Every structure is written in structure tokens, then in C-alpha cells.
Amino acid sequence: MNRRGRPNKNDSPPTAPARLTKATLLKGAKWLASVDPALEGVLEKHGPPPLLRRPATFATLVHIILEQQVSVESAKSTFDRLKATSEGTLTPEHVTELGPDRLRELGFSRQKARYAAALADDCTSGRFRIDQLSKQSDEEVQTTICARLGLGTWSAEVFMMMALLRPDVFPVGDLALVKGIKELDDFEYDGAEAIMERGESWRPYRSVATRMVWQHYAHQRKRDLF
User: What angle in degrees, to the nearest 10, is found between the helix axes of 92-105 and 110-125?
Assistant: First the structure.
């Protein structure tokens, strides 16, 4: 039985791919809708969620730093100003050349300017190899990213979901995800552990379920997704 008391139509979850594509995301969304009435309603109302793909690059990690605890729109505005100072590709060397003071002029907080500068230094020194992350397990990716200054669990999970397109990531520290689940279920969950339990039935497509919840959350507020 699922959380709302309806029998699951498919007791055996499918095997998820190593990486999501538009086709496998649609497959996952349809399966989730078949086993969860809340997500069934999202799919019926809004269609399949977008892939929300980002490149697995230094620039994406800087963008994620900017998105920490601020609106998507505010982060994008600052990131666009930063990109405009580079010649097409945002590199660690360029961020190092700008330095924390110039980053702050572009809209970074003091703390986030420090994080971006430290990330650039880790990349140029070879301490952090972004191109190696795709070869690592989810647990290894999270450990590697979280070892960087200012990049925690949420940042690692968003990178895994959007840049590495891992299928079964569940960022319970994401405010939009938590609020969206509460709205869909019309239930006040008591903390992250309860949210984690709610998402267990979405394995091995929790990344797809998260996109569907975000889709609902953004539509309710007439906002764009990431």
C-alpha cells in the first residue's frame, strides 16, 4: 500500500539507469505516477518534468554556491553578471583573477566570494578534479564535493541531480522540495527523517520525484524552475 492507502499498481520498481535522459526521466515519471497518487496528479496536470540539465563544470558549482539560501532569480542574476566578465567560458583562472573584492562588486556576498575563490584555487591546484566526479559513486561524489569550502550536502546533491544526472538523489535539505511535499500531501511532516521516509517509495527514481515536486511548487507560485 502507498502512503495514501491505495494499492501500488507495480510492487517491483524498475531498474534505474546510470544517468537520466529525457526518455528515462519520462519512464520514471510514469512509474512514479503509477505508484503514488500525489505524483500521479502532478503528471496529469503538468506533464513530465523537465530534465533541468546543467554541464558538469566549475561554472555550475559556482552557480550552485550562489543559489544557497537565496531565490533562483537572485542567484541567476549574479551568475549572469559573472559570466559577462568572462570570454565565453567561466574558468577557475578567471575567478582567481577577479578576486573576492570584484566578486562582491558583482553581487556575491562576502562568504560566497570566499567560497568561489577557494573552489577556484582547489581546481587550479589539482586538489579537486571535477572531470573525475562522473566516475565516482553517489557517496564518493558527495564526500568529494563536501570537502570543498562552502559546499555541503545540498550543493553536492543538486550537482549530482542536474550535472551528473544521477537518478536516485533526494535533497531533503531543499526548502522547495520539503514545502512541495507538504502541499501535495496536505500533511505537516515532522523533520527531515519523516521526509526521507516519505521518499522511500520513490526509489530508485527519487531524482525524478524531486523534479516533479519542484514542478508543482514552481507552478503554484507561478515561478520558473531552475
Answer: 170
